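thought: fold this chain, then report.
action: predict
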Amino acid sequence: MGKIRFIWVLVLSGWLYSCSSNDDTLDQARQETGFLTKGVYPLVNTGDLDLLVNEIGNSQYVLMGEASHGTSEFYTWRADLTRRLIQEKGFSLIAVEGDWPAAYSLTQYIQGQGSATAQQAVQSFQRWPTWMWANREVANFSEWLRQHNQALPQNQKVGFYGMDVYSLWESLDEIRAYMEQADPAIAQLVRNAQSCLAPYNRDEQQYAQATAGGTSCAAQLQTLLEAVQAHRARQPANNEAAFHAEQNALVAVNAERYYYQMIRSSAGSWNVRDRHMQETVNRLVAHRGNGAKIIVWAHNTHVGDARYTDMATAGMVNIGQLLREQHAQKGVYLVGFGSYQGQVIAANAWGEAEATRVMNVPAAMTNSWEDMLHRYSPENKLLLMRELQDIPEAMQSRGHRAIGVTYNPAAERGNYVPTILPRRYDAFLFIDQTTALSPL
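observation:
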């Protein structure tokens, strides 16, 4: 991510929210949320996930969202559900909204290489905001994964992989380190690409601005990718180091495309990013083979099908939509998350670590999905969307809160995405009161 901001397209024209009323009676709340007559279940402990695990069934792709990047409960419930899918459904791949090189380093720890602790291993994530992955919640889950993997052969160990597109310079470093020994001619191609990028001092913004004047390193990166692909084709199919190098080369090409689009089109850069996520998921499944099952962790704006939000009118797609369209026959199950109020880790300004702090998340705005679910009952709950799809009131578009890595609680109105919830997700975990993530 670096200095690049998340793009939340929130087209709210004609979308009016009334101020919350402190004197709503219980009867009024029941009347306004009375359409929730089915599909709503308690969510108290991991046993309550039985319904969801059964719903997921034989799906090959399960995507789990989050309404913010800094909420502890979103991470812990995703980890709990992921554990069960690994143990009960045979999932062996996890792809997350993070950089490939950093996540690959964590995967090495998870798969039993090295003697670092889990807390040390997650600190391979050095790009701001580091708290997204360098936190106690992920460290605890990583330790469980390492223990789970101990008794498994290498080709069955669970891996934790990054599917994001930002690591242009870091990915080139990884390819060069490998190719210096494996193929010096390709190492020279890496140096050629690095020389082209050198004037921008590893600053994505500088490179993006330079492309406006006609500068481009796309040709050098494409040549490198083709050479790395040819190298991998000469290796055994299960050669992990060659696959790692090829994925880094793909990241470099798509990162350049992303930064090129960044100053030209918000929708264009967003789509480059989510299509790269889709391609990475497909590559991981193909590399593992034998119908490997994969779990994806990302923000709701990536996971929840974009066709049922205002993202569609802006020309944007996301990985949830793309995987549904491509792999419907193999089973694609989308799980969203939301909360009514609580705390979150976020920053006042992009890229400023010193501005990162625990912030209070106010009560959800009136008539938003989060508000309706709280007024139905101020408790955690699981929604199974197939049971709501024949209820007209449930199929209305309502605001659904999305908090990024920067946040201003005083400007809540801009954080709500108009959403048809039962179409956007297959299930929804609602955590009424949340706490902040625990950064390391």
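thought: worth noting. Residues 1-26 have pLDDT under 50 and may be disordered.
final: tokens above.
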